[in-house]
């Protein structure tokens, strides 16, 4: 059956010039049955940090609740938001803690460092970090997502160009995946704030 | 005579008292005062800072006021090191509740949890009680704005206005006289400052001797914990100093 492809989904994160984008599809399924078409797989941690989680939805929900728990405590104790790179390391630790009984989730972390530098990182289900200069992908059909991103990515895209690129990559990438799609949501993070837009694509 | 029953927290004296708990409360009565007032628009907490030194890095050190979660804050009177342990405990408890139920912990539940911990140290373990009293200020959707007080025995109560720490009886009597049921947030702010100015040892109130916070709701309905800066406090202190000058003339 494959627990990683039971619910289905696709996530992309991409860097631009002083901005990052993270996008997910909106399908939630139980194998071939579609259960929801408004199911976001991205979770905001703070103004310049969003996590995307691909894989088994129950673990996605538990993990996002655990991230919220840890970040809230961090904020209370340190009186500041967690830096993206620090958060990524924390996620990696949390996943490795369950090395012999893992969460069936692959996180994508996207955000801006305090000095504004874009940061994207993908991880496997036991916390192996894969930081990238350009883009990272996760989901039930990463081959397609890698293909479109590799073709359409350019360096130093502005927030508007980045949005177009990520949106097109996501929509065409999930088209080849029967378990992902039904629209998408794209978040563009800049030092001034985050803009989120919902996409409508092939609704199948 | 009482000396024989002092050393263990886990035993009663023949008169039915727990001496260690009482000694803990004695420690708190020497600590900097904290006052809280509940209004329909929010809860105000004010506290007297005992540690005053030019060398103290004031920008980030808070000695008396702590945020426990987005919707609850606490003022401390007593041994700061003991308070830090309990504050951390409270923060964890609030997050665990949110993790399980996906909603903010009701204020009274948080108070109960902390008080249950404090009570444990009066009954088992052979460890001394925490030398801390708290004033909890918060908002939840069940009971709106609330103010609670807790002490080393693990007792707690809900209050409209109360004070802990040094001179708390004097503070309480002023509150009894001046508190009115439909007090506004502004009046509450003025009241806490007035109470502190009368119970503190120093002659004039200045911003560096005080910590002042409020728990209110923004227009969008979010609960906000606001720490008053020195600048924010200026008009309130000016008002209080003028009023006390007028009353002595």
Explain this structure.
The complex is a heterodimer of chains A (204) and B (249). By secondary structure, chain A is an alpha+beta fold. Chain A is 31% helix and 33% strand. Chain A has four helices and twelve strands. Chain A has a five-stranded antiparallel β-sheet, with helices on one face. In chain A, strands 5-6-7-8-9 form a five-stranded antiparallel β-sheet, covered by helices on one side. Chain A has a two-stranded antiparallel sheet with strand order 3-4. Chain A is globular, with a radius of gyration of 16 Å. The model of chain A has no long low-confidence stretch (mean pLDDT 97). Chain B is 38% helix and 24% strand. Chain B contains six helices and ten strands; from the N terminus they run αββββααββββααββα. Chain B has a five-stranded antiparallel β-sheet. In chain B, helix 4 runs antiparallel to helix 5 (185-199). The model of chain B has no long low-confidence stretch (mean pLDDT 91). Chain A binds chain B through residues 65-66, 68-69, 72-73, 76-77, 79, and chain B through 60, 67-70, 88, 91-92, 95-96, 98-99, 102.
